Amino acid sequence: MSGRPQLALAAAVLALAGLGGCATVQQPNPADPLEGWNRGVQRFNDGVDEAVLKPVATAYRDAVPEPVRDGVGNFFGNLDDVWSAANQLLQGKLEAALNMTLRVGLNTVFGLGGVLDPASEAGLERQSEDFGQTLGRWGLPAGPYLVLPLLGPSSVRETAALPLDMAATSTGRVIDPEGAANWASALRVVDTRARLLSATRLLDDIALDRYSFLRNAYLARRRNLVWDGNPPEPPEEPPEPTEDGADAPR
């Protein structure tokens, strides 16, 4: 699973959990015409997670002290911040791009290469962006919902952006040789999954239909991110005609 979409999804799960059981009702969703395929892929992903990722992430969380885990997360987050600054620049968010650039510089120089996070203490909070959000800000619609093998929830737009996102935030950009970079990538997956343990436990407790809950959480979260928390109102559906030809109120 890639770190960025999964952490965003965890935030969405926790946010929607506050809405209670209403978010768990299964309803047909026009944004999910591939539901049959997606449900099958999610079952596969859940099986891999239960058999491999979750046990390894639980052992990592229990064995590694929290300060060390925080340092690991900070380091990988600093890599992501470089790409966030680039995407903010592509979206024309000059002030945000400058702040993120300053954040990266401060954490890299004074935070031991990003292991520490003095930038947050200085008020330079993380404002994450990815290329999927950039495409959305340029007007490209999300397209149908997709569940990717091993990578989890996505959409056509986010899937198209994913190769560039993954290349731009690859540990191979800063870690050499290749073997060490591969181990670092594996650590990133485990660390990300460990951070999701509480969210997935909450999800298992409250979701009547886990698939629908995850889909709705993901789509709502991505739409919110593209529009910086202020998405436009969706267009109203036209009224349905009645038998006498008049429009019925909706």
What does this structure look like?
The protein has one domain (3-19, 38-226). Helices cover 62% and strands 3% of the residues. The protein has 10 helices and 2 strands, in the order H-H-H-H-H-H-E-E-H-H-H-H. The protein has helices at residues 3-17, 35-63, 66-90, 94-110, 118-121, 131-137, 156-168, 178-195, 197-206, 210-226; strands at residues 145-148, 152-155. It has a two-stranded antiparallel ribbon. Helix 1 (3-17) crosses helix 10 (210-226), helix 2 packs across helix 8 (178-195) and helix 3 (66-90) runs antiparallel to helix 4 (94-110). Residues 7-25 have low confidence and may be disordered.
List the SSEs and their pairings.
Blueprint: H1 3-17, H2 35-63, H3 66-90, H4 94-110, H5 118-121, H6 131-137, E1 145-148, E2 152-155, H7 156-168, H8 178-195, H9 197-206, H10 210-226
- Please bin the fraction of helical residues: 55-70%
Q: Biggest sheet, strands in spatial order?
A: 1-2
Poorly predicted sequence stretches spanning 5 or more consecutive residues: 7-25
**What count of structural domains?**
1
Strand count: 2
Q: What structural class results from the helix and strand content?
A: mainly alpha
β-strand percent reads: under 5%
**Biggest sheet character:** 2 strands, antiparallel
Shape: globular
Query: What distance lies between the first and last C-alpha atoms, to the nearest angstrom?
Result: 41 Å
As a whole number of angstroms, the C-alpha radius of gyration is 20 Å
User: What is the count of DSSP helices, taking H or I runs of 4+ residues?
Assistant: 10
Average of per-residue pLDDT values: 86
